[in-house]
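Why does residue order matter? Because the sequence determines the fold. Keep that principle in mind as you read this record.
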Amino acid sequence: TGLVGKAIEAVVGRQNVPESQERWIYLSSKDADLTNFESTKAVFEKHQPTHVIHLAAKVGGLFKNLKYKVEMYKDNVDINNNVMECCRIYKVQKLVSCLSTCIFPDKTTFPIDETMLHNGAPHSSNEGYAYAKRMIDVLNRCYKDEYGCNFTSVIPTNIYGPCDNYHLEDSHVVPGLIHKFYNAQKSGQDMTVMGTGKPLRQFIYSEDLAELMIWVLREYHSPEPI
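Structure:
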């Protein structure tokens, strides 16, 4: 039900694939506590999925990542471990997980690509979240080697689009700026964007990412991230 999940639902809806070929089920945090193994197992038992797109995560902007490093690490590791192990137990044919651009090394050369993911430490501001997400990539290969599982991942850049989180304290940059500009317009005050203006950022529209993830689910069969 989040940013990327809603985008996938919109793209799938436009594709009009017959339900006899693909039946999509969209879940939210209300359906299971994925930090709990038994709760995760129960939702797999209920739906018996053949393919899984794993979007669940404890996420936040800069301030949340700085303030709750331990929780960002522990909760995301629990979520990822439980989802991946249940995919193995229930013999899921394909698992596609969504990683994050912030997991790349802080000190690196540009342009960066997926092969450079583990070439250094992530930025210290979000190291709890970043290391938890990196472990999905490691486990994709481990599950492939030990159990023959078809698990892979996508590493998008900064995502924006409909159904985003516009909270001023824990949103990402685009929705955060939209909210601030809205408040400035509403109050008639000037709006100042913090920073020097020199850093470069890349962004991807959520429905463009959704199209890529659906393609990966159907056509891409390597544990190496894309």
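The chain has a mean pLDDT of 94.
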